[in-house]
């Protein structure tokens, strides 16, 4: 990572987390010098070791907060908090709503999905990228935390590739659970078919 992309720790503060029966202690960390200027957060959970378990989780207001069944974001977030707390590591919560297109655009894309488009085609129909997320900030945050090598809790190969390109070694990509429902199975199928997510769904190879 170049000197221009170096971020620093701004504050650390204890926050007990309570998520659907999961009760854990965390330390929230804020940063200065992140390349996009957004207010991303890291949560230190458990006792992070030399190669911590890390989840890079993009904000999803509808799923994380309101429990929307159109995606698997809320269950993935809760799973990550529980698993990282047990093994020791960091949850990076990135303010990249709707794979980086923003909340209102995501809801516009939902309306197009209701007309038959998949999640990627809906973004394209709105003149937006299929996936606008850039994980440079995640690499900056990890570097500021003194982390150079991680086990990455993710089904998304692009996260691992981007972190590696930014100088964070990914020792292992650890799959998350599969949280398929009637409401999100088409969304999950598009992840597998369009961006190579390592999910096993009925009738699909991993």
Pick out its properties.
single chain; 206 residues; alpha/beta; Rossmann fold; 7-stranded mixed sheet; 34% helix
Question: Your description of this structure?
Answer:
The chain has a 7-stranded mixed β-sheet, with helices on both faces. It folds into 2 domains: 11-95 and 133-195, Rossmann fold (3-Layer(aba) Sandwich); 97-132, no CATH class. It has 8 helices and 7 strands, in the order ββββααβααααβαβα. The two termini are 32 Å apart. The protein has helices spanning 61-65, 73-87, 97-100, 103-113, 119-125, 136-144, 157-165, 185-195, and strands spanning 8-19, 22-32, 41-45, 53-58, 89-94, 149-153, 169-174.
What would you say about this model in short?
By secondary structure, the protein is α/β, with parallel strands linked by helices. The protein is built from 8 helices and 7 strands. The chain folds into 2 domains: 11-95 and 133-195, Rossmann fold, CATH 3.40.50.10990; 97-132, no CATH class.
Instruction: Report strand %.
Output: 15-25%
Distance between the termini: 32 Å
Topology-level CATH name of the largest domain: Rossmann fold
The figure for the number of domains is 2
Query: How much helix is in the residues?
Result: 25-40%
Number of strands: 7
Mean pLDDT: 87
Shape: globular
Q: Note poorly predicted spans.
A: none
- Secondary-structure-based class equals alpha/beta
- How would you sum up the major sheet? 7 strands, mixed
SSE order in H/E notation?
EEEEHHEHHHHEHEH
CATH superfamily membership of the largest domain? GTP cyclohydrolase II
Tell me the CATH architecture of the largest domain. 3-Layer(aba) Sandwich
CATH class of the largest domain: Alpha Beta
* Rg over alpha carbons: 17 Å
